[in-house]
# Entry
Amino acid sequence: MSYIQQSDLANYMDNINLVAATDDWGTGVVNTAVLNNILQMASDRVDALVSAVYQVPFTINPIPVKIRTAAAIFAVEMLYARRLTPDEKNPMTPQANELRKELMDINRGLLSLDYQSRRAFPPIVTHARLSRANDNTF
# Structure
């Protein structure tokens, strides 16, 4: 299930560039098969970045804003890359890299996704500190 639709890309890419990025056959319209594949791949990439903490795919309604935003930015980045735009000239790469970092921090438990999402697993304490207050091993 894709978290975004074609209309979600309008904030990041105009229709002319969307047609140019997907129209392989010169028909002058958006190739929906290509677009749907990219939207699904972008959603899968978002899932992969938070799957250690949250149960994916997200089924809550509405989908968390951060997840939808990341999926849209990843999709636009992939659309630009589809036309061989190098990373340094891809206008979405800086935003996509920042969101990847943020989603990885969410995956590590350093940040919260939002107030509605529930973790699939309880948080794991990575550095347990033993003292007389919480352990009788001394």
